[in-house]
Design brief:
Largest sheet of chain A: 8 strands, mixed
Helix content of chain A: 10-25%
Largest interface: A-B, 75 and 75 residues
Strand content of chain A: 25-35%
Shape of chain A: globular
CATH topology of the largest domain in chain A: Fumarylacetoacetate hydrolase, domain 2
Radius of gyration of chain A: 22 Å
CATH superfamily of the largest domain in chain A: Fumarylacetoacetase-like, C-terminal domain
Oligomer: homodimer
Structural class of chain A: alpha+beta
Chain lengths: 443, 443
Amino acid sequence: MIDGLDETHDASRRSFVASANDPDGDFPIQNLPLGIFSRGPNGRRGVGVAIGDRIFDLAGARHAGLIRSVSGDAIGQDSLNALFALGNQQLRLLRKEVSRLLDEDPAGQATRDALAKCLVPMSECTMHRPTDVANYTDFYAGIHHARAAGALLTPENPLPANYKWVPIAYHGRASSVQAGGGEVRRPLGQRPPLQAGGAPSFGACERLDFELEIGFYVSGGNALGDPVPISGAASHIAGYSLLNDWSARDVQRWEMFPLGPFLSKSFATSVSPWVVTADALMPFRTAAMPRGDGDPKPLPYLWNDDDQANGGLNIDLEVSLSTAKMRKANEREVRILTSNARYLYWTPAQMVAHHTINGCNLKAGDLIGTGTISGPSDAELSSMLEFTKGGTQPVTLPNGEKRSFLLDGDRITFRGRCRCDGFSSIGFGLCVGTIISERQTPN
Amino acid sequence: MIDGLDETHDASRRSFVASANDPDGDFPIQNLPLGIFSRGPNGRRGVGVAIGDRIFDLAGARHAGLIRSVSGDAIGQDSLNALFALGNQQLRLLRKEVSRLLDEDPAGQATRDALAKCLVPMSECTMHRPTDVANYTDFYAGIHHARAAGALLTPENPLPANYKWVPIAYHGRASSVQAGGGEVRRPLGQRPPLQAGGAPSFGACERLDFELEIGFYVSGGNALGDPVPISGAASHIAGYSLLNDWSARDVQRWEMFPLGPFLSKSFATSVSPWVVTADALMPFRTAAMPRGDGDPKPLPYLWNDDDQANGGLNIDLEVSLSTAKMRKANEREVRILTSNARYLYWTPAQMVAHHTINGCNLKAGDLIGTGTISGPSDAELSSMLEFTKGGTQPVTLPNGEKRSFLLDGDRITFRGRCRCDGFSSIGFGLCVGTIISERQTPN
């Protein structure tokens, strides 16, 4: 058995929640992702586990005496921060306990009745931001994206000279991270002058874009001044979500020199509400992206044989678009691209080791994005900027509509799915956002 | 009387706390800055007001029935977030109430005795980070710094083309913001290759620097999607601290293209522990930096006549250095530069309006830095990078020591002071940090 696997990964395990046994479902008993839910939009928020089309209410289960592996303090919260602060060993114990409880054959009728009371139909619930994000960092580890976007934004230097040495990143805006599902307001801002030395124009962003990323959440954390070594970095990752790094390309091009993106990103970042734990992803680990012949070997603080062998993730990703016109005509969304998380030049563990090498303190619940994950082929370019070549080659949708960038009413949906022979397939659920028009200019 | 002034600014007002009446002191009754203190390093944290050499314990005063203007919830916290969430009108009422209580002639002997019980000697207290910083943004509004640093870091383009249109900023690291007074560990990191195309080296930062800035804290806040208009922006600023944006110049030069500074800044940011309220600074408002003949008029969302007339701040700033050798010889620190907050190209209100124009939500307690405030003369260059010309012209200290950048044991102290005819001078207290050596490289 592969290191880290246990009975929770056993493909033969089935749940007494019938919908969890659908082989095409995202949430079989082998997944058990964590999230924050409420019954209705204004209900009390609590920690839940997705199982089929139900949410298992952890606080309720603890109150009923079903959960004993973690304290009530850690799961009686309106965010996952306290739970993630316990660290991955505790998360693993909780996973084993929940897996046993939701098994096809839980112990005794009394338990079955008590469990049923803790299962809520997902369709009756509202999902919220998984953690109270105190710090959000976004990397730039998708090398195919860096090359493609670099060729458009800074053609004189498509792949930065530091790229293969430094896991490049910037701090993002924590306050505007939101659970996918809602609306995203088109930002106002300064758009670049039409010619060098000219005046910028002001108004609604005209080049609104998405970026397909994976986000991960910190567990445990480290004290200020104490770097996390690469060998222990993976144990600081609680789990993963899909992440949409909405981007205002016109604002970005004008504002970003010399200190990087700011308002072009800070208006919204969407995450899928379910956090697929690092444990659930164990079977889908894969080798890190191999270095090419001319590539430098990274510095020792970023290099670890085990991480190179197992630190990558094999997650199929896809992006769909539905326009307002399509929805009015009852037409289905169209898939516009696919990609895979394995197209990352740096592993999540390398990101953690780099982030902390200067002593920076990560805190439980912090969110870290990987950067846009494009693949090598034209069908795997993971932003509008890339697949419309900077807006110069609009894409034509099946109903005849054309898009260079996103228009009001456009709805973007991300999906993620893991598949591996011998294991149950698991999914991430959806990360959805619908563009709405800008506010009037304030006075 | 100038708009916004009231009896709390009256220069003739004196306090019954004798040390507050020292004309050279930072904390007369006209100041009344807010901070988080504890009795001893591990005592319970609470909200305090500095008065002379004493701290007025607000939670204690409320418990004694002396404070009635704000709820116990807002001041019974271990950070200023809840108090700042009430907004500036409430902060003004609290200021008036505290000013009356600490007056030379408070009402009656009973009150005087009750007040005395709420006054703690500052020397017995430990100061902490004023707010639980959920979001930290750093601007680049010091135009003399932008020119001087730009000439060294990006000589081909010292002042970016967007500089006079865009209040440039980047997101900083919130978790490593700390109250000045403690130690700052020299970061490890990648240092740039000696020649283009070469390999970076790894080790302790060799070009460690400070940056002299002002920081301000958000009061109230705005909802996601709702920009704050320039006319109302000043009312979203609770108060100001000194801010040291510690910088690893070698790491910065290598990592910052294309997404901006990351590890070169995120190891530590120090703030002075006392927040001088926007109300206390009313008499020291001044005109914004005038635009030169060739300068563009900023876009309307950044432009407001009242802000241009009164949105600047006249705060004298200075930086002192003490080395380990100097302290061993009982030699006094040396002042290495002076500057003034009026050397900012963008006002704090313009920063708030810009920050939110895309709908980004500011939250009470968020910290916003102005960027390094250098002046036009050689004695006003507010980082080592600038006044040693990128380390090529080391400065010689009175005891013969030379410095290009900071060495272990160096202690940097910031001071800020406001002076204006007809008003009591007020100060910011100190923002201090002492450099300690790096950790060993993790494995």
